[in-house]
Design goal:
4 copies of one chain form a homotetramer. Chain A is an alpha/beta fold. Chain A contains 16 helices and 13 strands. In chain A, helix 1 links the parallel strand 1 and strand 2. At the A-B interface, helix 9, helix 11, helix 14, helix 15 and helix 16 of A face helix 9, helix 11, helix 14, helix 15 and helix 16 of B. Bound molecules: manganese (II) ion (MN) (4 copies).
Amino acid sequence: MRIAVIGGGSSYTPELVKGLLDISEDVRIDEVIFYDIDEEKQKIVVDFVKRLVKDKFKVLISDTFESAVVDAKYVIFQFRPGGLKGRENDEGIPLKYGLIGQETTGVGGFSAALRAFPIIEEYVDTVRKTSNATIINFTNPSGHITEFVRNYLEYEKFIGLCNVPINFIREIAEIFSAELEDVFLKYYGLNHLSFIEKVFVKGEDVTEKVFENLKLRLSNIPDEDFPAWFYDSVRIIVNPYLRYYLMEKKMFKKISSHELRAREVMKIEKELFEKYKTATEIPEELTKRGGSMYSTAAAHLIRDLETDEGKIHIVNTRNNGSIENLPDDYVLEIPCYVRSGRVHTLSQGKGDHFALSFIHAVKMYERLTIEAYLKRSKKLALKALLSHPLGPDVEDAKDLLEEILKANSEHVKLE
Amino acid sequence: MRIAVIGGGSSYTPELVKGLLDISEDVRIDEVIFYDIDEEKQKIVVDFVKRLVKDKFKVLISDTFESAVVDAKYVIFQFRPGGLKGRENDEGIPLKYGLIGQETTGVGGFSAALRAFPIIEEYVDTVRKTSNATIINFTNPSGHITEFVRNYLEYEKFIGLCNVPINFIREIAEIFSAELEDVFLKYYGLNHLSFIEKVFVKGEDVTEKVFENLKLRLSNIPDEDFPAWFYDSVRIIVNPYLRYYLMEKKMFKKISSHELRAREVMKIEKELFEKYKTATEIPEELTKRGGSMYSTAAAHLIRDLETDEGKIHIVNTRNNGSIENLPDDYVLEIPCYVRSGRVHTLSQGKGDHFALSFIHAVKMYERLTIEAYLKRSKKLALKALLSHPLGPDVEDAKDLLEEILKANSEHVKLE
Amino acid sequence: MRIAVIGGGSSYTPELVKGLLDISEDVRIDEVIFYDIDEEKQKIVVDFVKRLVKDKFKVLISDTFESAVVDAKYVIFQFRPGGLKGRENDEGIPLKYGLIGQETTGVGGFSAALRAFPIIEEYVDTVRKTSNATIINFTNPSGHITEFVRNYLEYEKFIGLCNVPINFIREIAEIFSAELEDVFLKYYGLNHLSFIEKVFVKGEDVTEKVFENLKLRLSNIPDEDFPAWFYDSVRIIVNPYLRYYLMEKKMFKKISSHELRAREVMKIEKELFEKYKTATEIPEELTKRGGSMYSTAAAHLIRDLETDEGKIHIVNTRNNGSIENLPDDYVLEIPCYVRSGRVHTLSQGKGDHFALSFIHAVKMYERLTIEAYLKRSKKLALKALLSHPLGPDVEDAKDLLEEILKANSEHVKLE
Amino acid sequence: MRIAVIGGGSSYTPELVKGLLDISEDVRIDEVIFYDIDEEKQKIVVDFVKRLVKDKFKVLISDTFESAVVDAKYVIFQFRPGGLKGRENDEGIPLKYGLIGQETTGVGGFSAALRAFPIIEEYVDTVRKTSNATIINFTNPSGHITEFVRNYLEYEKFIGLCNVPINFIREIAEIFSAELEDVFLKYYGLNHLSFIEKVFVKGEDVTEKVFENLKLRLSNIPDEDFPAWFYDSVRIIVNPYLRYYLMEKKMFKKISSHELRAREVMKIEKELFEKYKTATEIPEELTKRGGSMYSTAAAHLIRDLETDEGKIHIVNTRNNGSIENLPDDYVLEIPCYVRSGRVHTLSQGKGDHFALSFIHAVKMYERLTIEAYLKRSKKLALKALLSHPLGPDVEDAKDLLEEILKANSEHVKLE
Ligand SMILES: [Mn+2]
Ligand SMILES: [Mn+2]
Ligand SMILES: [Mn+2]
Ligand SMILES: [Mn+2]
């Protein structure tokens, strides 16, 4: 089996490869082939990767996207359209308009999506015509891209991943001294806009204990997070990104008074690549980079797609009845039963009105943005921006859009 | 036939009675009976009304709610829970927290709803047990109350009305020199959160002409309203109350720099009641009061419920398939085929994603608020406030709720 | 305005033209153009029609389907694919297998549908590419064809008609000495498989009176129809064609011991065409032909599509929420609000489980038959036949299908 | 943990106990308590059971239903309302009217259901008020009873079981030399009216191979079963009970020319109970009794409800999105993910139109029958019978119902 990794020059690549090494005892991996438009960065990473892998499987570099995916059974998307330069704009421009500047949420997620769509469209088309491989996507905004691919490009073998669910599971497992597989959640929402209603560990409903734990933590760090009453009131564990929606003013202050995360990451990456040139083990600095456990999420998913065990993974896919009071065609981040290449959603009952309030609004925004892209329409793009809970007021919308489009003119053109 | 008017002391009453006089040639009205907790104001109004009605039908005053509704075929709710004093709080308190202070929208609508629910619950219960009359509701927030009555109290013969749809129809009719009945709309949404996708006059699709007209008007008054590009982009006519969502900052500035509308209305009402004491015709000053054509909406609805002609009315009722991509049970403001006591919704196809983004979010807020009321729960009330697009951030939510509850402590208690 | 009539040589044509003459005072008809593959029969009919019409509008004959429809605003389909010869097979072949032989129901309707689909496909395609006219369809099986056109050919301006609803309305109007427009029904189902739950006359619910009337009639003619207890039990008025489902054995005996209806009709038509050669008024013999009031249904529908009055018509169209517990995309026979070219379905609440039992089963059969046709697949055709409540057992299915295909080999080929 | 077995005197009991013995190494079973209205038969069986169990867990007999269930975590329903005498009527009466006489299907299933409902209603009520145990139901008609309990009695912890799915899985496993857990199915429908679209073994799609196998078998025994072309045409594996629908005449001949199965079973049971008096091992004769693997189905289900492994079981439960084009509330027989007391349905995509044709019709019949029972209404019972694809024509319906009600007058009364 060949696995293609698109965005091979990512600083995450070594961790991903470690994940693949871990599962290579359960499933047979013959080759891992890398592709990146930044050949230089990729060279550094892949050379390091070869030292890690030794002869467990072949490590290859491809000159073109097509030759990477043509014989692949799995294709992992982890490229960053527009690079960290693009992210810098996503984070910086909204701030000028008094809006949250964040890589995946709100206006920043909007420009990131517009940059990603043309590449995704081309890449998915190539995979469809060649290997018909299963695509595992980490490229952000991951859920928005999955909505695009599943409902508009209509390519079915596309699974959106994020490391938030697995990290939450890991935290729970740690609290209760359990294994990852002992944790089962009633979990739903959009990527970076998800909600957890129930937590089970080894079959026991520990939801109340988790709330107590959360409140305890919050009471120690009152300024950093939701107040303790928040969980008493809402009774749902929210994705950390909900802070941007629920504490918009505070979060705006916080991020506008710090250096942009993009610039921090640039520095971290610089150091990392220096290390990669000679490293034989994954350097500790990688943990600063974020993205914890993302390799575990991907590697375990591949393992469970390749075997007939039947395991639960929380991924972005079409609802198909999982949340009874959301439409079947919404792409959601939900637990699925994964077995031998099939991904079945699990019935979870009804979703909470509080959660649905955000999920619906942002799903409508997602679709408007996709339609704006597909029609290359500035008018529809404005409509999309105005529909977002964190989007601009009418007064600023036009200037903001123009500035975004100017900054991203190499990547996408709307008229 | 007897018609009961609850809130008989309203300054609108004379206009309503004029509407009833207009239809009294088409349908037989024997008696109109008034009930108000403010007996003094009601006395002034009803005395004036008697001078208007002469002997066209009997004009009565009831001592109790029950005796007013017991023999009624229609009950009109037009009372204002908490009076203008209550409205003053609804408008004033949010402003202190940097939030829109508006009678029906956002936080102000939240406190108005909490004041209304206990009275509505009691009144609907009495009607159910006595006359089983059809209730026509103008009490605000009219759509939210209809959601409460239809889906939670499960009383079916309850129709929510507002004068926005009929005024829009009147404007269109004027532009095209047509009659009200010549206008047909693709219209949907929540009360004060509604959207018009298509306008037909005498069967002709004039939607583009209406957009041109709107843009022309906007270009003359650039500071007062949406910019002209707004309609080019959104391609939906929005309810005027959408300004609060789409131009939140501007509207906040505007309303926070003026006297509260509640106080203006107090003055207008004072003058009006002075006039009513002696008037024999409706005084011109009533037009300043707002509420234009509300009597036409109610009177025509009663006429068409009483006859077998089959006419279209835009009312608040359960969707039941009218908008294909909204759940059947959402109470929406939509066109209905009204005939002999029956109200059938009409299929209108799919709703636009932009419109749905707001409709879904606010419907979820509506339900959370109702659930908070039914459980008398402060915790759920906080959850409801946090879910509203115009609601507070987490930092302010608790103080805001406490202030609202304190100001309304005579009307509702949450724990 | 031009109206095209396809199947101009039908013996019904003069009655249709009379209907058009009736509405020609309300809507402007410039030309009616006829097309038929049987030019000889058409010549006789159209010459007669010209005598009827005088100079109220132009009466034309077209050489081709395309030239008939190209400038038409309405196209009326009333042709019979395969003629009465085809019908003879539809009625005769099933009898050999112990099955109901009926023109539109069960196995006979299956072969009629297979003959119709290729012609409908071609004709609808031509209309789509030329005039984009509204097609009003009487060609049987009318509902099945509407399912085909709306859901598979995806042509929207296609309305399936039948004279059963208007005749039922006429009967009710007669019983209660009312006008057609005074009658309003809760009516739903498939064409020739429809159900009436409620009858209103001038706004009054007369359902119980109608049941009493039906039972009275039945008690006088016990052998001909449902027993009186039937309506006490089922509490729904059923389309007369339900006899084939509910009294299958009795109906089989009845039809297998009479001459085939196709042959009777051949004789009637022969006489009729003899009369048409010289007639100046519609001959009384036409009433024997069946099809009562079908011209009224079509003419009134055109009138109400052309005007802005807003009237109710029971037609075959997509459910779109009319019956809450049936899917939106089922083509049903239901009341619609017709106004200025638009057809809106009306919310009617839930359908009864008894009715739904038949509606679902036959709708699934309809779709299987359409899919068999689209793939020209004998295998799928067998599957369709086996799914029909009046279809063959497995033992007979193959022979039956072969005999049907042989008899219809000029019209449709499956492999 | 205590398990209560209702219908302890069943001849199946020893096999069930063997199943419980098998899982008693994985889950802790403290006591199994039996209850039966036939104390004599139960005594014989339980004495035998005690010899089987030795001291693995306590074996108890309860005098009352309530004392059996009050401390139970699981309650297994395997009683036969009306006993074999009741079954004799279910099978014999329909034959007199030319209808299929079968214990669970068609008219026989109807009378069995009417006998079962009052007992089920009382028993479920008692469980709800006492232990709130999970009920595992084998009492027939198992799916119909589950529809009754889940949707009308609204008791959630009720799972309908049948041995058809596990036997199918066993057969497949044997063909492919695999384990039960290696088989995964796209399976849906009603109990005894189910359909298999896809078969996977160890992750491989072996559906085509299964069809070839079925056809091979059929070609060897042409008179006993579907012809080989059937599977080529329908492309779905059907539950053996579909024979009654698809080969009604042939099956009628077959069953009406043999002794009633009820009488055969009476003889087998007599012999069996003779053996049970002295047996220490399960006698071979039990295999003649039918019901193969039913104990495995129940025991494995309990094991997987008690553990956190997450396993697939095909059970009767609410659809909840599993089959996308069937309503969420239909009780279906479908694969579920069973883990720590929770039962999640799995998304399986759309159901085939052929399958849906039968599923819908019989589900509507099920609901009509339940409503007839709840209202104790003969009229509704007639309506239910008329709606069933294997039910009587109108001519016979009344006599048939009267005869059924007379034969079952001790169990149920309708008016
Ligand atoms: Mn992420
Ligand atoms: Mn209003
Ligand atoms: Mn017809
Ligand atoms: Mn069974």
